[in-house]
Design goal:
Layout: E1 7-9, H1 10-17, H2 21-29, E2 35-37, E3 46-49, H3 50-59, H4 66-77
Antiparallel strand pairs: 1-3, 2-3
């Protein structure tokens, strides 16, 4: 799924970030990602900032160690 939309509705955000609805709302309420009930929606549907979802997911990725970096270089050159 490729999107250039900055703000995602709840359903779109769940697919984009592979995060459940309840978890997304919980992350937004705790300030981990940017999200809030949409003030322009009569139903007060939630909207989420795509870039903050990206940052959250990137923060979950394990850091590559120097050893892993060197091994990757050797694997590519072999």
């Amino acid at each position: 799924m490729i999107t250039t939309t900055h703000w995602l509705k709840l359903k779109e955000a769940t697919k984009y970030g592979a995060i459940g609805k309840g978890r997304l709302i919980e992350l937004a309420r705790s300030g981990v990602i940017k999200g809030a009930p949409d003030p322009d929606s009569k139903r007060r549907d939630w909207i989420f900032d795509r870039l903050s979802i990206d940052s959250y997911r990137e923060s979950q990725m394990p850091a590559q160690t120097d050893r892993d970096f060197v091994l990757d270089i050797f694997k590519r050159s072999a």
